[in-house]
Amino acid sequence: MSIRLLPPTLVNRIAAGEVVERPASAVKELVENALDAGAKRIDVVLAEGGQSLISVSDDGVGMDPDELALAVERHATSKLPDDDLVRIRFLGFRGEALPSIGSVARLTLTSRKRGAESAWSLTVAGGEKGAAQPAAHPPGTRVEVRDLFFATPARLKFLKAPRTETTHAIEVIERLAMAHPEISFSLSDGARRSLDLPARTGDNARLGRLAQVVGREFEANALALDAERDGIRLTGWAGLPTYNRATAAQQYLFVNGRPVRDRLVIGAVRGAYQDVLARDRHPVVALFLELDPDQVDVNVHPAKAEVRFRDSGLVRGLIVGAIRHALAAAGHRASSTLTGDALGALGRSPLPAATPYRPSSSWSPPPRPSAAALSAGRAAQAPFGNGGFPGLAESIPGLSLPPSAPSGEAGLPPAEAPSAAQPDYPLGAARAQLHDTYIVAETASGLVIVDQHAAHERLVFERMKQALADGGVARQGLLLPEVVELGEAAAARLVERAEELAALGLALEPFGPGAVVVREVPALLGEASDIAGLVRDLADELAEWGATTALSERLLDICATLACHGSVRAGRRLSLPEMNALLRQMEATPLSGQCNHGRPTHVVLGLSDIEKLFGRR
């Protein structure tokens, strides 16, 4: 078999297979060309999902007849003025998009250069180029692609339904629009607009554009990022942990204005949210990296969807550090969407059927109970217990549990009257405990409902991380060592890691076949910890991680497991001072808006929201 050169039309079709995967791929290339041409408005029209028509119009610099003829030749571009493939400053630079599209479709270019008296048009059909002809068109360029893949019919069977293809095109335009808020974008089918993003200006233009695309909720639940290290600058917004999604689809990365997908960045984002988000949930982020073009290679993928950083470790560290710093600065803040979810749940709750009142002539009021009976009944159903969990109030500087107050009239505990001098705490003052699980606090503008287990779990976790950073976790010996039966394999895994676990405050030894004895536990866990459950969970996690994974690599996971078993449980009665101590420590602890698994620790209900529930406004 002899070696031969392929005909140009076939070469272009092969290139089209790499560049034009579906209509959205063509839309991406054409819109990027419009952006490189300095357009301030870009309008896209799709018919049948782009299969029968793709039209992209812009008000950019335009082209003259000679430039039109060159634009449809392979490897002809205006975007490499110095022939330097290292310092690339444009979105498109390969010079393959237009000839590749023209080889598999009917392509028509109509353009008028700024300041020119007339426009010109040129057609390419199946790779056959026509001559430039005079045309009528305002300054700018319009590219029409008709009958996509008519020259390669085998590709048509891989296209999805028109609505699906339109959705992919919308995603492409939205990503480009996020990076260029000063430009207006629209997408229609010729009659109805599916996307309309007017240009935005001002200091918050980029956040406003993100809100247009991702949703208004993102604007209210996003933390601003601005960090720089060794010439690399990171800006953007990271969503609160309690504002999350089931997939990573709403994680956006832009490198020098170019939308890309990069596994390094996805891993960095996951690492930054590691101890505040469940493993099956994903944060919403929009990250904009700006760095010298010679520090990043954008030429590693035909569609320019991936990049390669010269110093990937520096980029990863910058992203992780900036997001973690923003999350820590957010303190106890939680997603504002929780309020809407709570109100929606209240609105959907079915009310019990009312029993009609039928007065009876033999009815008489019951006798008034005595003071002693009231006191006994109240003591049996007291919402506040007298016990506490060790180390909670004492861990807050200047705060201690006051002595028990004297009983009020008829043995009832006196209500804590609000005082004008009482400070207006962000999480309010505790008023009650519901179902021995939820703390209800009153603020100046509404109510706060706190999940006591989730909140204390975060507090213990943060204190444990701090203790590790300070040199080690303090241990306390058990008065009666606890024997835990596990099975021989699980017990052997724990014994093999006994030295590493001891560094984390958990001291255990083998105790016969299939059992271990626990002699010391981290002091932060107190007496409330479920030692047997903790040991079993650690054994399961060791089995999942495997023998080759050092516990130091999973340090935060171990701390989260320890904190979960050491925190105050649902069903534990708390005194009023204990509840207030928990609230004050939440206000002083970073990341306390969610537990270690990403669940919210509290929900805020504004007074106006409550009034709406009762029809008062």
TrEMBL record:
GO molecular function: ATP binding; ATP hydrolysis activity; ATP-dependent DNA damage sensor activity; mismatched DNA binding
InterPro entries, per the entry: DNA_mismatch_repair_CS (IPR014762), DNA_mismatch_repair_MutL (IPR020667), DNA_mismatch_S5_2-like (IPR013507), HATPase_C_sf (IPR036890), MutL/Mlh/PMS (IPR002099), MutL/Mlh/Pms-like (IPR038973), MutL_C (IPR014790), MutL_C_dimsub (IPR042120)
Region span, Disordered: 350-377, 395-423
Key words, A-Z: DNA damage, DNA repair
Every DNA mismatch repair protein S5 domain range: 210-328
The keyword DNA repair is assigned to this record: yes
Pfam families in UniProt: DNA_mis_repair, HATPase_c_3, MutL_C
Sequence ranges of Low complexity compositional bias: 395-408
Cellular component aspect of the GO annotation: mismatch repair complex
Chain coiled-coil ranges: none
Gene Ontology biological process: mismatch repair
Domain (MutL C-terminal dimerisation) ranges: 430-574
Protein family (similarity comment): Belongs to the DNA mismatch repair MutL/HexB family.
Function description: This protein is involved in the repair of mismatches in DNA. It is required for dam-dependent methyl-directed DNA mismatch repair. May act as a 'molecular matchmaker', a protein that promotes the formation of a stable complex between two or more DNA-binding proteins in an ATP-dependent manner without itself being part of a final effector complex.
Protein name from the UniProt record: DNA mismatch repair protein MutL
Organism of this sequence: Magnetospirillum fulvum MGU-K5
